[in-house]
Amino acid sequence: MTQGESTLLRADDVSVRFGAARAVDGVELDIRAGEIIALVGESGCGKTTLARTLLGLQQPTSGRVLYEGKPLPTGTRGLREYRRHAQLILQDPTGALNPRHSVYEAVAEGLRIHRVPGDERELVASALSRAGLRPPERFFGLVPHELSGGQRQRVVIAGALALDPSVLIADEPVASLDASVRGEILALLLRLRDDLGLAALVVTHDLGLAWNIADRVAVMYLGRIVESGPVEQVLTAPSHPYTKALLSVLPESEGPATVLAGETPDPSRVPTGCRFHPRCPLLAAGLPDSVADRCRTVDLPIVDGASPGVACHAVEVATAR
Amino acid sequence: MGEPLLELRSATVDYRTANGLVPAVRGVDLRIDAGQTLGLAGESGCGKSTLAMAVLRLLPRNAAIGGEILLGGENVTDMSWGRLRAVRWAEASVVFQGAMHALNPVRRVGDQIAEPIRLHGKGSVERVDHRVGELLEQVGLPARRARAYPHELSGGQRQRVMIAMALACSPGLIIADEPTTALDVMVQAQVLTLLSRLVDELDIGLLMISHDLSVLASTCQRLAVMYAGRIVEQGKAVDVLREPRHPYTKALAAAFPTIGDASSRLSPRGLAGDPPDPSDLPGGCPFHPRCPSVLPECSGTDVLLRPVSEDRTSACLLEVEP
Amino acid sequence: MTASIAWQRRRAAAGRVWSQFRTDRGGLIGLAVLVVIVLLAVLAPLISDRSGLDVTHATGGVLQPPGDGFLLGTDESGRSVLLLLLWGSRVSLLVGLAATLLSVGVGTVVGVLMAHFGGWAQAVLMRVTDFFLVLPSLVLAAVLSTVLTPGIGTIIIAIGATAWPTTARLVRSQTLSVESRPYIERSWALGAGHWHVIGKHVLPAVAPLVFANTTLNVANSIITESTLSFLGLGDPNSPSWGSMLHNALQTGAVTARAWWYLLPPGVAIGVVVLAFMMCGRALEAVLNPRLRER
What is the pLDDT of residue A152? Predict the structure, then answer.
């Protein structure tokens, strides 16, 4: 997107700790108007916690979340007002809808909570249409179990759209859906961006999804962003060894797969120095001693997700030359 | 060639429900020989899990199996209860969908792996313990983890335990139902590497079920795509993925884009509508309501699987004569 | 229009509950018995003469056996046992119902608050609930009845105060289960406050279970009331089945072999309780599987 797009939502050095576990350990991230950002990482990397913190559903232990330059309100009334601007799409559309409520009630719920003025019926119908359920009246009286997975997800999206937000935060929006239905929901998110200028943060472990719909991507590992930048750059010419490894193990990728050993360590036991160094294939293959020492002992500065960046000693050294 | 490990001839499975007979599998022909790997691709409601469970007669009571399901030449439906119990796990075993929740949370992992060994009466306590340790090492876990409880293990480790359990009685065939679906990309890669290595080392047959075509293509030699209870395309995995000969296969392949492919950048592709309900299938070709290349005759012609080229079959009017 | 959608669905849901309830023969029998008894109790002023309960207006002889105008004989004051039984049913049913409403009401409120707010609210309320749960209910009810002025209100309070903890624990676990569903998080994300989440999501989900539990609770309350009255702790002025048994014992009806005085109230209690239990179990069977799969 063009330079100087207004920043809607910003995570400013946000950390979230649960006791000793450092779920989010210093993240700076921007979401600009009219763009889709993919937040990619494996389970335990803190992406869901970060998403919830951006929505105000979780208080950061340190740092702050800024909406349009101002910190998020802390009182219930203030937060409720904020909810009109930033909405959540959950992973499992079946669980996300109250099985006893009709589609109409599910979409109208937000309108009623905020006492939005206007003809409720019109607003609900408009939201359902924007989410691709047409004619909307046909769906008013249906209950979730009478809908397919894709339709349920559209109802959830309609419920979010009814409040006319400027940012959508979607946590694995298509992970529970059938493969052939994914495309439609992803196309809907793209259309919302194009037609309504809706910004979106899509949290996912699926790099293909990022390729499909995102403008920028941020890769998270153990609570930090390790690489961020435009999708074309990060996914076709990755710099960080973790990103490279993730891309190499995708089934359709050519070339040898770098299968990392073990699993992501516990967030309460973050390694010293570069947090990825125990599993880093680059380090294992052999780096000059000066660099290897830094990998083991020196922690990297936080990558500002607002601009392209990589958190890797080896890369730093290479680009410095 | 020898006798196939698993052969299905016109296999059908119908569920008896309050609303009548629901056809979940409507005539499937398959063949897996020793050391071969076959991937079965499809989405919810296509009948792939039903098919997998039918092989060991693990279906609920209201399921009626038709056709022939031959395990090592013997028809599974004709087996006596005793013979079936002997066959289960010792000749073919299953890695279940949602395997991570299939472990008993209050029993140690080692005991659960040992359970099928003990049930099949194979050896003394020391020998069983030794075998459990052997199995754990085979799947990449240290033998001492046998004393762990499921909640002490990560998702990937639990999946490895499920695989160890499936290998416990040295079966000739393993059926893996969505073995990597809920796993992270890296853990998925680890599990798939493990499965490939085991298949090579132990020369067992593998039937892998998934909705992700690329995962199947990277692990299996052959690929069969299921839709609405039937196979709609079958052939060598790399060929099917590279050059699909059925519109549904094309759509499935397009659903998981290749990174770097400019045609899928900012253009997610999917099908309209939803996978069909087995109790309410459309007439003619069951895929026709969603097919992007539908012809007028598709709604009236029930297309069967026919050869389209060397080692490839497809059930589509665009490719074959009806 | 929107309200009518909700009402249409509620009616349809009620219809489904009814058609499933109908298949349970025990439940139907229980319901039929209850309907008859409640009708009789409600219509008592119309079908009988209240003055017959007044001791001074008693016309029969003392402990007369059935016959000669008195279908079930007379009591120690010459009053018709049948009349006493009919009017006693009003008291027993009223107390049973009112006490249950009180205990279910308190239990539901406490259970929802505990589960929803957690933290110190839960810690405190849990201890209170456990305390009342462990207390021997009959003893507590007896103590309350003697401390407070005797009367129907006292009995209702006494029973209500001891029966609420079971409902509270049931409602608490159901609330916890409902609040772990993703649609609750969606509601928070939409901007809901506590009362919206409780009123729109938790209570409707908990209501069917509470309703089924209520029917069983009424049975318990009736038994407790009868026991209290039997022990002489009831209201001396209004007859109830329990007090009939109490009077029978006190006035030597047992030694006089006046079975017509003892049997009817005992049987009546048994029949009503059984009817409530059969109804309640059928309701639970209908409502619970739906709850579980949701």
Answer: 92
Provide the terminal-to-terminal Cα distance of chain C, rounded to the nearest Å: 27
Q: Is the dihedral of CA C105, C111, C112, C113 positive or negative?
A: positive
What are the backbone angles phi and psi of residue B215, rounded to the nearest 5°?
A: -60, -45
* Residues of chain B scoring pLDDT < 50: 1
Confidence band of A317 (pLDDT split at 50, 70, 90): confident
For residue B255, the chain A residues in CB contact (below 8 A) are 179-180, 182-183
Tell me which chain B residue has its CA closest to the CA of residue A193. B266
Pair type for strands A62-67 and B205-210: unpaired
| pLDDT per position as a tens digit, C209-247 | 888 888 888 988 888 888 888 887 777 777 888 888 888
- Lookup: tokens for B189: 């890669």
Q: Is A175 on the interface with C (CB under 8 A)?
A: no
Q: Please list the residues that pair with A41 across neighbouring strands.
A: none
> Is 0.90 exceeded by the ipTM?
no
List, for residues A195-243, the tens digit of each pLDDT value: 988 999 999 988 989 999 999 999 999 999 999 999 999 999 999 999 9
Residues of C in contact with A113 (CB under 8 A): 190-193, 196
Nearest to A188 by CA among B254, B272, B288, B44: B272
Of C6, C196, C205, the CB nearest to A113: C196
Q: Are strands B92-95 and B173-177 parallel, antiparallel or unpaired?
A: parallel
The residues, any chain, with a CB within 8 Å of residue B186's CB and separated by 6 or more, are A42, A245, A246, A249, A259, A260, A263
The answer on pLDDT for C292 being more than 50 is no
> Where do we find the tokens 């290998």?
B167
Q: What is the pTM of this model?
A: 0.83
Yes or no, beta carbons of B270 and A185 under 8 Å apart: yes
The structural domains of chain A, with segments of one domain joined by +, span 7-100+148-221, 236-320
CA distance A309 to A227: 6
The helix (H) or strand (E) run that includes residue A315 is: helix A313-320
When the pLDDT of each residue in chain B is averaged and rounded to a whole number, the result is 87
Edge-to-edge strands, sheet with A70-71: A21-32, A7-18, A62-67, A70-71
What are the residue ranges of helices labelled H in chain C? 2-22, 25-47, 81-117, 119-134, 137-147, 152-179, 182-190, 194-196, 203-230, 241-250, 259-293
- Superfamily grouping for domain A7-100+148-221: P-loop containing nucleotide triphosphate hydrolases (3.40.50.300)
Contacts of B54 (CB under 8 A, 6+ apart): B11, B13, B25, B63, B65, B69, B76
Q: Which residues of B touch A249 (CB under 8 A)?
A: 185-186, 188-189
Q: Which two tokens stand for residue C69?
A: 């105008």
- Domain extents in chain C: 17-49+80-293
Tens digits of residue pLDDT in C51-78: 777 777 777 777 777 777 777 777 777 7
Q: Any idea which fold C17-49+80-293 has?
A: MetI-like fold (1.10.3720)
